[in-house]
Amino acid sequence: MLKVSGLNVYYGESHVIRDVAFDVAEGETVAIMGRNGMGKSTLLKSLIGMLPARSGEISLGGDLISGRPSFARVAAGMGFVPQGRMIFPYLTVEENILTGMENVVDKTVPAYVYDVFPVLAEMKTRRGGNLSGGQQQQLAIARALVSNPKVLILDEPTEGIQPSIIKDIAQALNRLKTDRGFSLVVSEQVLSFAVDVADRFLIIEKGEFVYEGPKETVDQARIHSYLTI
Ligand SMILES: Nc1ncnc2c1ncn2[C@@H]1O[C@H](COP(=O)(O)OP(=O)(O)O)[C@@H](O)[C@H]1O
Ligand SMILES: [Mg+2]
Predict the structure, then answer these.
(1) d(Cα 67, Cα 154) in Å, to the nearest integer?
(2) pLDDT tens-digit profile of 135-186?
């Protein structure tokens, strides 16, 4: 579904993403794990087109999308939830969700959204800025979902969220994936969350993948050691 090859991203002369290549199959969830500063956000922002790549190819469902602007990548089927969620604090919950529906003909929030995130239904008319961190994360996921992505990209969705809500979010994502059938790419430092959602793990260190393993044979101790050194 998603295919990335030879991806290089720089900030000025600083070479941050180094020849990264990976694939994500239809319906698959891949967790990209790594400590702060290893390049997770830079990689994900370059996938969605918020940062330019110096070289490399990104294709989605067989269409080459690298080179296209972000809005065109979203229209082609990519959804993105940025680190820190970036919801609109002065818009209501419902208005925030509707900002994700620019490419959708019927501009009403689909029922499945409130079904899987009942707290958003309760808070429909509240301003986004008045929600807790966990509620804002659910809102940001909802906003990305309503454009019907083929590949949903989440950048550190558990950051600053309490453990009970982290469990809820993992459960909601797994249910949404079963019901809606998208692929998921998630960057994380919280191993328990990644284990709950991912089919495959990639470890990033200084902009390069240094470990890859499927859920079945995953060496949790090894992943943990990469996250805590
Ligand atoms: N806007 C920027 N300008 C220059 N360097 C940056 C910028 N954003 C991030 N970096 C650097 O790029 C590297 C990777 O950062 P980032 O992708 O944010 O890592 P992570 O998301 O894994 O914490 C770090 O060394 C960071 O300091
Ligand atoms: Mg980051």
Answers:
(1) 21
(2) 999 999 999 999 999 999 999 999 999 999 999 999 999 999 999 999 999 9
For ligand 1, is residue 87 a contact (CB within 6 Å)?
Answer: no
State the distance from the centre of ligand 1 to the C-alpha of 30, rounded, in angstroms.
Answer: 21
CATH of domain 2-85+149-228: 3.40.50.300
Checking if the pLDDT of 112 tops 80, the result is: yes
Token reading at 212: 């890859």
Nearest ligand (C-alpha, residue 20): 1
Q: Are 51 and 42 in contact (CB under 8 A)?
A: yes
Domain ranges for the chain: 2-85+149-228
pLDDT of residue 102: 83
Taking the CA of residue 36 as reference, the ligand 1 atom at the shortest distance is 23
Q: Taking a C-beta distance cutoff of 8 angstroms, is the pair 176, 207 a contact? A: no
With a 6 Å cutoff on the Cβ, whether 44 touches ligand 1 is no
Does residue 97 register a pLDDT over 90?
Answer: yes
As residues whose CB is below 5 A from the ion ligand 2, the structure lists: 40-41, 83
3 state SS for 143-171: HHHCCCCCEEEEECCCCCCCHHHHHHHHH
pTM over 0.85? The answer is yes
Question: SS3 for 57?
Answer: strand
37 within ligand 1 shell (Cβ under 6 A): yes
